[in-house]
Every structure is written in C-alpha cells, then in structure tokens.
Amino acid sequence: MNFRDTEQEAAFRKEVRAFLEKEMPGGFGKASGPAAKQDDAVRRGVDRFGVSKEWTKKLAAKGWTAPAWPKEYGGAGMTVMEQFIFNEEMATARAPRTGGIGTGFAGPTVITYGTDEQKSELLPGIVSGEDIWCQGFSEPESGSDLASLKTSAVRDGDDYVINGQKIWTTGAQFAKRMILLARTDPDAPKHKGISYFLLDMKSPGVDVRPLVNMAGTQGFSEVFFEDVRVPAKDLLGEENRGWYVATTTLDFERSSIGTSIAQQNQLEDLIVYVKDRSDGSLNPTVKLELAERSIEAETARLLSYRVITLQNRGQVPNHEASAVKLYASELNQRVATTALKCVGLYGQLDRNSEEPESAAHRYAPSRGRFMRSYLNAVSSTIAGGTSEINRGVMATRGLGLPRG
Ligand SMILES: Cc1cc2nc3c(=O)[nH]c(=O)nc-3n(C[C@H](O)[C@H](O)[C@H](O)COP(=O)(O)OP(=O)(O)OC[C@H]3O[C@@H](n4cnc5c(N)ncnc54)[C@H](O)[C@@H]3O)c2cc1C
User: What is the reported pTM?
Assistant: First the structure.
C-alpha cells in the first residue's frame, strides 16, 4: 500500500503549509502551546467569531472555506484527495476551523437540490462565513428514529406554518438559517410525509433557548416554533420528499473526515505534557495506556484513509463511514480518560478566567483542557448517530446480518 502523495498532491500540500505559516491568526498553531489559547478563544465565544471572520475572509479568497464546492459557487473545486490533504494540514497546524454546518452539509444539500434562486440567495453568505447555519432535525422524541419527527408544516397561501420543537440544535443561538425537517403529510407513511425547509431564524415565532452542557458551555439549544411562517420559496426539493433530501445531508455529514488528526494532536499534547513533568518515573499502567492509545490513533487514521480512498474512486462510503465514526468517537473517550489518569487529581481543576490569581487557575493542568475534553467526549458517541446505530449499520450493511 502506498500512502505517499503524488507529485501533484505534494505540491498542493506545500502550498497549504506555506499559506498556513504565513496567514495563521495569532494565538493559534502549535507554537502557541497545546491548543490552550485556542480553547480560550473558543470559550470566550465572541472571540471565536471575531477570529473566524478575518481568517474566514482569507480562506474565502482562495475558495478554501468550502474546498469541496464547485468554483462557480465560491468553492475551490478540490478533489476528494485534495480536500483530505487540506483538512489534514489545517488540523495538524491547529488552524481555526471555519464553516461548520453551512459549508459542511447545509450548503452542499442546497447545491444538490436547490433552485437557481435559492443557490444565488443562500450560498454566498455561507462561503463568506457571514451566515451561520444550524440543523433542526432532532426532536425530544425523535433522534435515532428521525423519521418519526412531529414538528408540523401546514400550507397556508404562499407560506407554510410551522409548529413544534427541535432539540440539541448546535449553534442555533448564532444561526441565521436552519435546515429544518417538518411533517407536511401526517397521514402518509413516516418517511413520505416530511418536507425540508431553509428557515430564516429571525422569523417571528422562533424561540431559541440555549442548553448548558456538562462541560459548562452552551453548544446546543432547544428551538420552539409557534405559528412560524416560512415562505414556500424556502422549501428545498419537493413537498413530502424531504426525507430523501435529508439523507443527502446526512451523507455529507458522515463523510466529513478530520477527527483522527484531532485525536493525534490531543495525544501528542498529552505526551509532551507528561514528558515535561516527568521526574524520570511514570505510573506503568498509564505508560502502557499511552502506548495503546497511540496504536489506536494510528488505526483511526488508517480507517479514515479507507473512506477517503473509496470517495476518491467515486464510491459512496456507507458502513465504512459508520466504522470510522464509531471508532473515532469511542477513541475520543478513551484518549480523554487516559489524559485524566496522566494528570491525576489535578485533572479536576479548570482555569478560571475571572479569577486568574486563584489556585484552580494556576494549577489546572493545560488550563483545564484535559478535563474539558473528558466532559465533551461523552457526547461524541451520541452526536451524528449513536454507537449502537453505527454498530447496527455495520452489522446489517457491512456484515450482511439479518435486521431483526
Ligand atoms: C453534542 C451533540 C450535538 C448535536 N447536534 C445536533 C444538531 O445540530 N442538530 C440535530 O438535529 N441534532 C443534533 N444532535 C442530536 C443527535 O443527532 C441525537 O442525539 C442522536 O441522533 C440520538 O438521538 P437521541 O438523543 O434522541 O437518542 P435516542 O434515539 O432516544 O437513543 C437513546 C438510546 O437508545 C439507543 N437506540 C436507539 N435506537 C436504537 C436501535 N434501533 N438499536 C439499538 N439502540 C438504539 C441509542 O443508541 C441510545 O443509546 C446532537 C447531539 C449531541 C450529543
């Protein structure tokens, strides 16, 4: 097996590296220490978008906010392999990420199913980074069984009227638009009565209530809809065919690669941390665990190569993408657990920006980053499809086992 870049790929990698070296915003990158400043910026929230705006502009000028998109829509028209190289270099350099749901899967779905009017109205704001998008799919009673969703959309003149509730909507409090699934035909079989809308979050009747997660951050929200009017022009695809549009969105969501590099970075930081503080001895169990995690991080990398190779050949990864997601998310939790073992009881401390002189602030290892990673890792085996659902996909579609 040959994992080396072709001449063309090596030249592209060099171009990305040179760009990152020159243009990376201050406070980011390996030289700044183990991503601690990046964590600070993200936690401050406001700065996250402040940094992103300037950085996003630079990336957008090269079409690199949406590397996979066709050039006519402001992307860079990269091949699958170029995207992978680009993501790999961005992650390795610890460059701040841009885009998210907009460039990752809302925009690509609009490109696939949108009218010319929808594309020209919505895509420029995504590519420029001005418009943040969120995904209103899950509901309190409909997560894994998404097609059972109950939020309703009833046609009334030139509008649809939306009533119901979404939950776990990442970034809803910042979003300008939502990709929204709602039931337009309650009498049809569950997959056949759903429509897909591109909702303006400023519409009257939309109520966003942020939820605080166990790491203390407001990552996602509950979103309530009370008689929200959505113009019919904001229906994506055909009425009652929204489920099939949504599966395209989910395919784009599942095929986004990059986590394995993030894990290798985290492990690298941890090893640096342990070496820096070691007085020549280390708990032997922890030492062996670190060796185990490093083998697993390499396995995760190779699994993601498999998905990329399939995509590069024009095939659509299916159970292979589930395997990557499952393995990477569970590894995320194992790495975080090992990290806490390395830092011991100090791992309970978080640095406190309001009280920089406090003992907690001073003694929190890596400014509390390992502890926060541990808390955040819990949800990684739930978000974007739970481990049980992914194992089910692998068992039935991958191994051909019966469904029942
Ligand atoms: C951090 C985070 C961010 C998220 N962001 C978004 C977002 O932006 N937009 C959005 O729409 N949603 C989002 N979600 C929601 C996410 O998609 C759902 O949480 C997920 O699909 C699981 O659904 P659920 O929480 O309703 O759990 P349920 O589906 O109720 O599952 C409960 C348990 O039952 C198991 N289970 C369910 N069905 C089966 C089955 N058939 N076989 C075996 N076991 C089963 C599950 O694995 C799980 O352990 C986010 C979730 C998290 C954690």
Answer: 0.91
C-alpha 370/C-alpha 350 separation (Å) is 9
Domain 7-98 has CATH 2.40.170.20: no
Please give the sequence-ordered ranges of beta strands (E in DSSP) within 93-158, or none if there are none: 133-136, 152-156
Domain 257-398 has CATH 1.20.140.10: yes
Residues involved in catalysis? 253
Domain boundaries, the chain: 7-98, 133-239, 257-398
CATH H superfamily, domain 133-239: Butyryl-CoA Dehydrogenase, subunit A, domain 2 (2.40.110.10)
135 and 208 Cβ atoms separated by less than 8 Å? no
Q: Are strands 177-183 and 133-136 parallel, antiparallel or unpaired?
A: parallel
Which residue has the CA at smallest separation from atom 25 of ligand 1?
A: 143
Tens of pLDDT along 118-140?
999 999 999 998 899 999 999 99
**Is the beta carbon of 135 within 6 A of some atom in ligand 1?**
yes
Question: pLDDT for 199-253, tens place per residue?
Answer: 999 999 999 999 999 988 888 999 999 999 999 999 999 999 999 999 989 878 8
Ligand 1 proximity of 137 Cβ (cutoff 6 Å): yes
Q: State if residue 165 touches ligand 1 by the CB under 6 angstroms criterion.
A: no
